[in-house]
Amino acid sequence: xxxxxxxxxxxxxxxxxxxxxxxxxxxxxxxxxxxxxxxxxxxxxxxxxxxxxxxxxxxxxxxxxxxxxxxxxxxxxxxxxxxxxxxxxxxxxxxxxxxxxxxxxxxxxxxxxxxxxxxxxxxxxxxxxxxxxxxxxxxxxxxxxxxxxxxxxxxxxxxxxxxxxxxxxxxxxxxxxxxxxxxxxxxxxxxxxxxxxxxxxxxxxxxxxxxxxxxxxxxxxxxxxxxxxxxxxxxxxxxxxxxxxxxxxxxxxxxxxxxxxxxxxxxxxxxxxxxxxxxxxxxxxxxxxxxxxxxxxxxxxxxxxxxxxxxxxxxxxxxxxxxxxxxxxxxxxxxxxxxxxxxxxxxxxxxxxxxxxxxxxxxxxxxxxxxxxxxxxxxxxxxxxxxxxxxxxxxxxxxxxxxxxxxxxxxxxxxxxxxxxxxxxxxxxxxxxxxxxxxxxxxxxxxxxxxxxxxxxxxxxxxxxxxxxxxxxxxxxxxxxxxxxxxxxxxxxxxxxxxxxxxxxxxxxxxxxxxxxxxxxxxxxxxxxxxxxxxxxxxxx
Length: 541
Known about the structure:
With 541 residues, the protein is an alpha+beta fold. The chain has 16 helices and twelve strands. A hairpin with a 7-residue loop joins β4 (283-289) and β5. The two termini are 48 Å apart.
């Protein structure tokens, strides 16, 4: 149960008793009006003459005036204060009326019993019992006043005592009922607050769900929709002109409305992907009735791109485990190759021309070992080990090594730069691997038909003063529809590619706080740009 729900306060529970207070003040007004009616009306002969006529008439009019005031202002102010003022007024005027009208004293005492019970119902226990005790004292005091004042009417002490017991009993009974009412009201308020809180939580969950949710009635109007559904549905559709202005599904998405109609008739959903609006992702609709026999239908719209990304994440996790295992298996034969090359280099029987080949094998073996280490580092999510790298010299060395180890024949690969002192903090092994991927792709795909490739690795400072490396080619360029998916894993336009090269290159750049993006070239060709962190980007302070 949520701990953030505030308990219902006594003041909140008292608000529910305002209706009972209204009837209590109405009853008081009727009491006073009845008393005035008997004294001033045509039926004044039904009761004996009052003990003090002027006093009785003044008392009745005053009680009617006070009762009217309490009735008018009964809905204002604190409930407890209203009830206390009312019962005090009732006891004061009631006891005096019993003394002024001794012939009607028993009836007035009986009517006061309801006032005492109502006060005990609406007030806490100590106040309710106090009102009953005051009523008992008032009755006994009035009897003593009459007996000691030589104005006795023949009543015995037993009568006020029996009324006193009745007052106390009715006060205890109604106070118990009132306490139970308050507890029930507080419980209802608590449960209501909890239910409202849970409803808000459910509404928030539904609203923020990645799955679109639509509620469609039998006439094809959209009654409810969460945020994901509105984004997937777009702005299409018209309103039906009613007071609530519901959108019409058949206009907002004719194909979805057609599938819903077919499902309602045949009971079999069409689970093929559907595009609700242009430039929006495809969705798979699922239908279910809101209630058994209801004409309202819930439509769940599953975004296929989310499903694809989840499947992609699972595949990448599996690929990471596989890559780590494969890298471990490659390291052992690679170590044997490097060891054999070292032994051959120490041999005096190797010709000078062949030693150059051994050097290439040793260099590439070391490079392959670095690639294996990078793959293991990515699988283990190890951070990069940045070093202070002078980019122009690094790029020239990279180009020389690439030419020596990769026969490019008639293709051209060169290094250029306008700043010979451009420096950056980067892991040189990971930067070398990323550049190898970019240059290989440029030499493979960045060429015009029947023409040699011309690739340039250019070092410079960008517009904000950070070092950058561009790998440019003079090929046909990359279409916008393909450029949006270039860095997705397993995406490739070649039947021989794996679609992992650019993805791994971007991940290596991100590990070095760098960014890798594709930049179209207006004059033709393509450009992959690496924006690196400056030489002091990671220094203290």
